[in-house]
Amino acid sequence: MTFEAVEKSFRMVGMEARGEFSELGESVPALAKTMMERAAEVKHSTGIEIALFEAKRGEGHRTGRYVVGLMVEERQDAPSGMVYVEAGGKYVSGRAPIEKVADLHEKAVAWGGEHGFERNLSADIIEVYHALEDGEDVEIFLPVKG
User: Fold this and answer.
1) In which domain, by residue range, is 50 found?
2) Among candidates 85, 131, 94, 72, which has minimal Cα distance to 6?
3) Which of 21, 82, 104, 112 has the fewest CB atoms nearer than 10 Å to its CB?
């Protein structure tokens, strides 16, 4: 896995929910399935799936907000039951097969620390999903200060 520091912005339309951090492995895919059933309602979609996650700020922080949806090309009104979100800033980024997402996050945090980046726990963590012929890759963007 390779990592880099990037500055990037994102626009998306998606469905928002709150849940236990320990249950995101089940709740996020379920919400993504519901979202994809409504994908045709999203105007100017790039067709690329994206998710934003509130960062866990400590052991006592058990639930967080997340949004799953599609990247869009321009600002817009979201369909009923959906939200439009813009995010951006500086990130530590890396990409790997979806099966290695937990390892990817762990190694990105370590790489960022080794390279002098301090995590920005008040900004959303972003995952962008890339469909492949034989599976799916996930590209993560961990927000950093500076």
Assistant:
1) 3-143
2) 94
3) 21
Query: Which residue in this structure is represented by tokens 């790489």?
Result: 111
Residues composing the chain:
146
What residue has token string 């951006």? Answer: 88
Q: Average pLDDT, stretch 125-140?
A: 94
Report the b/e string of 42-76 with b at 16+ CB within 10 A: beebeebbbbbbbbbeeeeeeebebbbbbbbeeee
Tally of domains in the chain: 1
Rounded Cα gap, residues 114 and 58, in angstroms: 21
pLDDT tens for 6-34 read 999 999 999 999 998 888 888 999 999 99
